[in-house]
């Protein structure tokens, strides 16, 4: 049995990942803030657990519940994109703290809490869903904006690079994957990719990972992205 845990799996990219993982024979543990409203996830996942990724107590409670269970692939997918912290000239500090708490600290806290579960598994893989908007190289070229979101994902990328180094002795593979611009509540309907196409490619990329990929920043098709 290969077990995958996906956060924010009740809609959008997380739900697509859960569907493709289940089709591929993974045992899927999907997390949702409100499991009672996660009907589509319940139809494909082996289990639905409650998780608020911005709460240390919630992360620790889930880790306690999963104690002793191997997790082959962890996907830190849950994320937010609040626009109240897009511009330094009109900055809502609460929104800035919330986006960093959810998009950066959440994946760090959960990965740390599940290190024993990853170590016990065969695949030992931690994936965080990042964004090309977290690329400092690209940001300096294009139209700027989205201060809070960009900062949260750039910091997530650095956290991943550091965790990759620090968890290498335990054989844990840490990769950040940009899903493309995807038609979800976050991405909007103008996005070129459907959740189904993006998440099928992400699962292909994840299934092709080996320890030589640890620390990489790639897109849904496995293509290297600039830091
Ligand atoms: N869509 C894109 O074009 C795009 C592009 C680049 C990167 N991404 C990244 O891809 C990931 C998924 O995005 P999406 O487009 O699928 O977004 P989405 O449709 O808005 O779904 C976000 C998911 O994250 C969950 N979530 C948000 N805050 C949470 C918290 N504090 N605790 C637990 N769960 C929480 C949501 O739960 P609720 O249903 O309870 O709100 C929902 O399940 C995010 O990390 C995002 O930054 C998306």
Topology, element by element:
Layout: E1 3-6, H1 12-23, E2 27-32, H2 39-44, E3 47-50, H3 56-65, E4 73-76, H4 93-113, H5 115-119, E5 125-129, H6 136-139, H7 147-167, E6 173-178, H8 195-207, E7 217-219
Parallel strand pairs: 1-2, 1-4, 2-3, 4-5, 5-6, 6-7
Helix pairs in contact: 1-8, 3-4, 4-7
The structure holds NADP nicotinamide-adenine-dinucleotide phosphate.
3D structure, described in words:
This protein has 227 residues and is an alpha/beta fold. The chain has one domain (3-219): Rossmann fold. The chain is built from 8 helices and 7 strands. The protein has a 7-stranded parallel β-sheet with strand order 3-2-1-4-5-6-7, with helices on both faces. Strand 6, helix 8 (195-207) and strand 7 (217-219) form a beta-alpha-beta unit. Helix 1 crosses helix 8, helix 3 (56-65) runs parallel beside helix 4 (93-113) and helix 4 runs parallel beside helix 7. The longest helix is centred in the middle third of the chain and has 21 residues, at 93-113. The chain starts with a strand and ends in an 8-residue tail after the last strand. Bound molecules: NADP nicotinamide-adenine-dinucleotide phosphate. The site of NADP nicotinamide-adenine-dinucleotide phosphate (NAP) has 29 residues, from helix 1.
């Amino acid at each position: 049995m290969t077990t995958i845990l996906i956060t924010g799996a009740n809609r959008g990219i997380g739900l697509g990942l859960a569907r493709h993982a289940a089709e591929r024979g993974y045992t899927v543990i999907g997390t949702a803030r409100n499991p009672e409203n996660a009907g589509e996830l319940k139809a494909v996942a082996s289990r639905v657990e409650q998780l608020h990724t911005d709460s240390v107590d919630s992360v620790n409670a889930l880790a306690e519940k999963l104690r002793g269970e191997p997790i082959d692939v962890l996907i830190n997918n849950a994320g937010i994109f609040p626009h109240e912290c897009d511009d330094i000239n009109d900055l809502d500090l609460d929104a800035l703290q919330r986006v960093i708490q959810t998009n950066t600290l959440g994946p760090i806290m959960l990965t740390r809490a599940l290190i024993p579960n990853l170590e016990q598994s065969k695949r030992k893989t931690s994936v965080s869903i990042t964004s090309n908007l977290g690329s400092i190289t690209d940001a300096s070229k294009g139209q700027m904006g989205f201060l809070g979101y960009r900062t949260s994902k750039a910091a997530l990328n650095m956290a991943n690079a550091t965790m990759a180094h620090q968890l290498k002795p335990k054989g844990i593979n840490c990769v950040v994957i940009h899903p493309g611009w995807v038609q979800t509540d976050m991405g909007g309907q103008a996005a070129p990719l459907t959740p189904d196409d993006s998440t099928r490619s992400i699962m292909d990329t994840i299934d092709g990972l080996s320890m030589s990929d640890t620390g990489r920043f790639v897109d849904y098709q496995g293509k290297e992205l600039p830091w």
